[in-house]
Amino acid sequence: MKLSPLYLFRINYKSIVISFFILCFSAFAVYSQTEKLNYISKLKPLYVDSIKRIKTDTLVYVKFEFAKSILLNPKVLNGLKERTVTGVDLVYSTHIESVTFDQYKLNLERLQNLKKAAIFLFESDNMRWRVIGETRFKTNADAQNLFSGFVLHLRPKMTIKETEAEIEMLDDILEGKESIFPKSVPVNRLKPTQFSYKMSCHFINSKTGKFEFGGSKITLNNELAKKPKMKGGENAFYKLISEGVPFNPERKFKRKQCYYGVYSFEVTQDGVIQNAKVKGSNASQLLDDAVIDIIKSMKPWNKGQLNNQTLLYNFTVTFGKEKIRVPYSNLPTNVVVRDLKLCNILGIDTTKSTAVSREYFTPDSTIIKILNRNKKWNKMLVVADLTGSMYVYTAQLLLWFKIKEAARENTISHVTFFNDGDEKDTFQKNVGSVGGIYNSDILEFDDILELAKTTMRNGNGGDIPENNVEAVINGINNCKDCNDVVLISDNYATPRDLTLVNQITKPIKLVLCGTWGGINPEYLDFIRQNKGSLHTMNSDLVSLIKTNEGQVLEIEGLKYFFKNGHFSRLY
Questions:
Q1: Are residues 459 and 403 in the same domain?
Q2: Residues contacting 260, CB < 8 A, separation 6+
Q3: Which of 420, 458, 482, 488 has the most CB within a 10 Å radius?
Q4: Between helices 391-406 and 160-174, what is the axis angle to 10°?
Q5: Which domain holds residue 482?
Q6: 24 CB contacts (<8 Å, ≥6 apart)?
Q7: Residues 293 and 438 in one domain
């Protein structure tokens, strides 16, 4: 049969239109990835002395040479696609050999090479990225001996031994033997990170010339209150540095060249300043000496009350030569302090341990905070993910339940625990009938605790996605009289059964755990489609259904774009 020219044209036209949309989508995806790489490469560094590589199954080290971008051991990335990667650190030495060196450009090249070797790392929008600058060097050789590369943080592979360790920790928490926010599980492995520490930081606002609280803060208020303080506070410190740096100390500074330095000093509980050092700098020796002289000449600070503890301070200064307004001074100047960040290191853990740190640990009271601030939730059906690495949140739920039971204020009518199919392999898991779901409306604490342990022990099977929606439908069918349906989910595990969302007959109150790196956009889609609400440790998102096409939402400092019925992260 001979086809008419008009018919052939229609076929070709249709093919052209389809090809056009594919090209547009591909171009958008490439653009998004490029923006993401630029965003990560320009993250503000976290400065530490050095990191020490520890052999553990929860850390993977991808090395590159000092001041180079080629990955030396990309094969270590093989097989990681099936593991849960919670974060990636780009670690480099802050030592600079040339004033023309561009650290951002090098970081970007390193990220591009990592993407070529493991593109799956860049497909997640809820993973935490950090840039770590090592400052422990005196010579070029010292800098080259420091580790340079990427550190991938993984959740442990769940085994019977790991599960029993988590259950033991759960018991310790509920009996008051362990903090409700534990950092580790007592299993025989080394602690996988040597640069997690508590610190409080202040940074200068270049527009106002005043310090604001920022950076990382993992500390207790009473710890901050008892430390020695400089008279006049952080603003006085900035004034001291900005006025004390010699104006135009040398004429070799290029007109628009930026210089920076990382410096440190210690303060005793008597307020005495000691051990001022240059930790990393691309400025001149004259300028570095000027900063150190200023620190050494500081008057003693007000005394502290921290039991003779010596406090370590790091501060980063960016020097510029543009003629800009300098707070506290009307003198004409060529060299100015443009930016300054002052960090008090409240505790660095540099000792070896026989405990395993659970991924990116941040003091996390997600469950407690959300349940306490949503007091109107009643006759609750609580559907909770009890798969591996969720024990911290399970402990919070059970402790909250125990407290409310003792006070006779329990507002939970039914619990549904799930573990994604018991010990089924991935190929055995069919959407809608995965199983591994456990129900109870006998709300005695001891019974709920035993049900939680049974759910945990029967898990450990298969892949990362989970059967959240199946569990919710199952729970609603077992408690038709429940009012508020609360789903406790793992932000790192996208539900395998989102195609079943329309079968949920009630709006969900989604409690999302582990959102430090951003919210998984799939969960934003889920809750908008369900007309429910999404809750993190610090936010209650109750009107996602009102999000319009093309709208950009800012949630906890991160931006999400809604287009064609789906959310995506903006960088």
A1: yes
A2: 281, 282, 283, 316, 317, 318, 319
A3: 420
A4: 30
A5: 366-570
A6: none
A7: no
In a domain, 203, yes or no: yes
Q: How far apart are CA 304 and CA 267, in angstroms?
A: 10
Residues 6+ apart with CB under 8 A from 338: 206, 258, 318, 319, 320, 324
Which pair of structure tokens corresponds to residue 457?
């022990």
Establish if 240 belongs to a structural domain: yes
d(CA 557, CA 129): 15
In SS3 terms, 44-66 reads as CCEEECCCCCCCCCCEEEEEECC
Closest CA to 533 of 384, 400, 413, 377: 377
Shared domain for 341 and 410, answered yes or no, is no
- Can you say whether the dihedral through the CA atoms of 443, 444, 450, 452 is positive or negative? positive
Q: State which of 313, 348, 383 marks the end of a domain.
A: 348
Query: How distant, in Å, are the alpha carbons of 236, 268, 280 from that of 275?
Result: 20, 11, 15
Residue whose tokens read 């659970």:
358
When divided into structural domains, the chain yields a total of 2
Amino acid letter, 20: F
Closest CA to 516 of 59, 125, 90: 125
End-to-end CA distance of the chain: 54
Q: Worst-scoring range by mean pLDDT, 52-56, 344-348, 448-452, 521-525?
A: 344-348
Diameter over CA atoms, the chain: 98
CB distance 174 to 31 below 8 Å: no
Based on the domain organization, do 509 and 429 belong to the same domain?
Answer: yes
Task: Give residue-wise pLDDT tens across range 470-521.
Answer: 999 999 999 999 999 999 999 988 899 999 999 999 999 999 998 888 899 9
b vs e for 414-423, b when ≥16 Cβ sit within 10 Å of the residue's Cβ? bbbbbbbbbe
pLDDT above 50: residue 354 = no
Q: What count of Cα atoms within 13 Å lies in the side-chain half-sphere of residue 95?
A: 20
CA distance 34 to 570: 11
β-partners of residue 563 are 566
Provide φ and ψ at 532, rounded to 5°. -100, -155
CA dihedral angle for residue 205, residue 206, residue 207, residue 210, rounded to 10 degrees: 40
Number of residues that this document lists for the chain: 571
195-235 per-position pLDDT tens digit: 333 445 666 654 555 555 444 333 334 444 567 778 877 77
**Which residue matches tokens 């409310």?**
404
pLDDT digits 0-9 by tens, 274-307: 888 887 666 667 777 888 888 888 888 888 766 6
- Say what the pLDDT of residue 256 is: 47
Domain annotation covers residue 105: no
From 297, 316, 348, the end of a domain falls on 348
| Inside any domain, residue 80 | no
Q: Is the dihedral of CA 453, 455, 461, 462 positive or negative?
A: negative
Alpha helices of 118-232 — where are they, by DSSP H? Answer: 140-145, 160-174, 221-225
Q: What is the DSSP letter of 314?
A: E
Q: Looking at the structure, do residues 428 and 532 belong to the same domain, yes or no?
A: yes
Contact predicate 383/485, CB 8 Å: yes
Q: Is the pLDDT of residue 119 over 80?
A: yes
